[in-house]
Amino acid sequence: MVKNEPLDSLTNTVYRRLTDSLRMAIITGEFKPGHRLKMSDLIDRFGTSQMPIREALQQLQGEGLITINPHRGAEVRSIDRQFISNIYDLRIVIESYLIRKACEQEALDWVDELKKAEDAYESLIEGEYTQDTIEANHRFHRIHNMIANNQEALDTLERWNTLIAVLRNIYRYRKERILQISAEHREMIKCFEKRDVDGVLAVHATHCENAKSNMLCDLPK
Fold first, then answer.
1. Which of 101, 171, 195, 204 has the most CB atoms at less than 10 Å from its CB?
2. What percentage of residues in the chain have a pLDDT greater than 90?
3. Computed from CA positions of residues 24, 30, 31, 32, in that sequence, does the dihedral angle turn out positive or negative?
4. pTM of the predicted model, to two decimals?
5. How far, CA to CA in Å, does 15 sit from each of 65, 131, 135, 212?
6. Where are the alpha helices (DSSP H) in the chain?
7. Which domains does the chain carry?
8. pLDDT digit string (tens) for 139-161?
9. Is 129:173 a contact under the CB 8 Å cutoff?
10. 3-class state of residue 4 by DSSP
11. Are 201 and 96 in contact (CB under 8 A)?
């Protein structure tokens, strides 16, 4: 045990490591669709207690990677092209609502934060595409999504972003898409500044469709 670290912090660390390991095992196909995640097997595999495993399974259920049945336990879902396509389609719906709410705000000072976030993203894409680049891209969207003050919507998007980030570490963006993201972000900022709701929604829909197409191009068929 790490000295001087609170127990709840240690538990949280174990839970996160478990969640990350299980998520990766599912996405990479180590655990096939239909595979039952038995508690006893997971305890042996990770050498931990039931509590962090149960929390990790609940998280993965929220991400849509597993189903939990009271009689059969946890079972791996199929992470196929349709599943990924559905996530991107739902993202358009939820973020479109949040964008509308953001544009209704009297003050637009948060647009300056969008510009700073995009500057940070563009400073990273000059080098190798890394986890930092993925996070900078997500940070841009968190800024305009947070303005609507809808935590439930944010939590849903964050679960999907976690899954997409893992996939992006496996199937990297192509260079042309990296530059395209930047151009689309800049167009969104212009529309936000003009309070052009229809304009920003149109750019955002294109942005999500391009992201989906790029991901599906690299996923196994």
1. 204
2. 60
3. positive
4. 0.82
5. 16, 21, 21, 30
6. 7-27, 39-46, 50-62, 81-103, 110-124, 131-146, 151-170, 175-193, 197-218
7. 7-76 (1.10.10.10), 81-218 (1.20.120.530)
8. 999 999 999 999 999 999 998 88
9. yes
10. coil
11. yes
